[in-house]
Each structure stands twice: as structure tokens, then as C-alpha cells.
Design goal:
By secondary structure, this protein is α/β, with parallel strands linked by helices. It has a single domain, classed as 3-Layer(aba) Sandwich (Rossmann fold), CATH 3.40.50.1580. 25% of the residues lie in helices and 22% in strands. Strands 1, 2, 3, 4, 5, 6, 7, 8, 9, 10 and 11 form an 11-stranded mixed beta sheet that branches. The chain is globular. The structure holds zinc ion.
């Protein structure tokens, strides 16, 4: 199998792939969220994994993040495109806008967030957690397609599944966070541990619980998210297709060398 690109996203993205076939994987961390579909986008073979399961029945805090990343690694994937909906904590990130993240801020708890937790230890750097090459490709692709894309943004990750209180949301905005979701962590960090490239694309669906003092901005509801996602589904698919087409073999990014100097396999 020669599948270098893996996509993790919602089940709405299924029809992305042409001529797909499902494979079932088992890892040392158990089964991933669902079967991995292998198929083609623009003639290029890719793997697709539905983050919340095929029937969207796995909540954010129960997603088997480690099994997902390891399963993709084991079938040969080197570069991951992670797609998901995000809430906005700043006025300039408007519903319907796309974002490529450049930083995350983890506020989840209780999640298994390392692959090196039994017979070895690794301390990878996540100073720049997202693949620089893939970020440039995504930004250029959106520009050429006239899709409104923010070239950077800090994504705050919370446990969920509930949405924020007004007090929390106010605090997050004041802390200079740009966006919020429930799944970016530990997905991106685990990819880094496995020396895989990770590109995080967010589709802004709402203004979290409403921006303080901004008239006419209502708190988020799941229906709003589902509607915005539906409206943007076609655009997301086209964008991913373009990114896949433009993605070369890895050249200049640091991702393949993330375990160098990380002390992997040494028990400290
Ligand atoms: Zn990379």
C-alpha cells in the first residue's frame, strides 16, 4: 500500500473518495474510530478516517486519538489533514470562514495524550505543532480558489461535550485565544510524536457563546454548527482536493525529525 496522505474528519466528508475500500485496523491502543477508507482524490490515493465514527456516535472526549494516529501510521501515512468545525472567540473569524491553525492551547483533561507511555519516554517539541509545508500549501490553495482562509489562529481545545459558559468564553477571548473546539488535542500532538506532518483546518461555525457587548451575536447551538457545516461541505471537499493535488513528498518541514533529541526510548 502506498498511501501517504491521511484525512481525519467528519462523516460528511465520506464522498470525498472515489473507488474507496474499507480496511479494519487494530492497534496496541485498540481500534480506531472506524474503518479506514482508502480511495482516490484527484487521482491520488489517500486514507480517510471518520473521527467520531461512521455513525457520529463517539463524543470528543472518547475519540480513540492514539489508535487513530497509530492506525494511520501503520498503513504508511506520513501527512495528515485534520478537518473540523470550530467556534470563534474573535470578531474577525466569522462563521463560514476557514482557518489553518498555527498554535493550539490545551485545556482538556483526562485524555491519553502520548504514545510513549509504557516502555519508553519521549519529549517532543510542540513549539510549532503544525506542519509548515502543509500550512503554506493550504493557504495558497484557498487563495487560488478564492476561499476566505485565515492563515493562522490559536485553537483552544476544551473537553466538551458541553459548550462554554459566558464566563469561560469571556476568559478565553481575553486570553487572546482565537478559536475553540474539542478535538484538536491530542490529535495534533500525537501526530508529532509519530513524526507525521499535521495540518489543522477549521471551519468557523459560530461565535461560541456570543461576543461580549456585540449586538446581534447569539450563543452557539448544535443546529447552527450543523447548518454552517452543511453549507460549507462542498467548499471543504474542493479545498482538500486541491491541497492533496499540491502536496509533494516531504521536503523541508521538521516533522519527520521530531523524535531527534526527544529522548525517545530513554526512561528519565
Ligand atoms: Zn511536515
Amino acid at each position: 500500500m502506498n498511501v501517504e496522505i491521511g484525512i481525519i474528519g467528519g462523516s460528511g466528508l465520506y464522498s470525498l473518495l472515489a473507488e474507496s475500500a474499507d480496511i479494519s485496523k487494530e492497534t496496541k491502543f485498540g481500534k480506531p474510530s472506524g474503518n479506514i477508507s482508502i480511495g482516490k482524490i484527484n487521482g491520488i490515493e489517500v486514507a480517510f478516517l471518520p473521527r467520531h465514527g461512521k455513525r457520529h456516535n463517539i463524543p470528543p472526549h472518547k475519540v480513540p486519538y492514539r489508535a487513530n494516529i497509530l492506525a494511520l501510521k501503520e498503513i504508511g501515512v506520513k501527512r495528515i489533514i485534520g478537518v473540523g468545525t470550530v467556534g470563534s472567540l474573535k470578531k474577525e473569524y466569522k462563521p463560514g470562514d476557514f482557518v489553518v491553525f498555527d498554535q493550539f492551547f490545551n485545556m482538556t483533561n483526562g485524555r491519553d495524550d502520548t504514545i510513549f507511555d509504557s516502555d519508553s519516554v519521549a519529549h517532543v517539541s510542540t513549539a510549532e505543532p503544525y506542519c509548515s509545508e502543509l500550512r503554506s500549501i493550504a493557504i495558497n490553495s484557498a487563495e487560488s480558489m478564492k476561499i476566505k482562509m485565515h492563515g493562522k489562529g490559536t485553537i483552544l481545545v476544551v473537553n466538551g461535550p458541553r459548550f462554554s459558559t459566558k464566563a469561560e468564553s469571556r476568559f478565553f477571548s481575553a486570553s487572546n485565544m482565537d478559536l475553540i473546539n474539542m478535538t484538536q488535542y491530542p490529535e495534533v500532538a500525537l501526530a508529532r510524536e509519530m513524526q507525521m506532518c499535521y495540518l489543522g483546518i477549521g471551519i468557523v461555525t459560530d461565535y461560541d457563546v456570543g461576543l461580549e457587548g456585540e449586538p446581534g451575536i447569539k450563543p452557539v447551538s448544535f443546529d447552527d454548527i450543523a447548518r454552517t457545516m452543511k453549507e460549507n461541505e462542498a467548499k471543504v471537499k474542493l479545498l482538500i482536493g486541491e491541497i492533496v493535488k499540491k502536496t509533494p513528498n516531504r521536503q523541508s518541514c521538521i516533522c519527520p525529525r521530531s523524535l531527534e533529541g526527544a529522548g525517545a526510548t530513554i526512561n528519565l
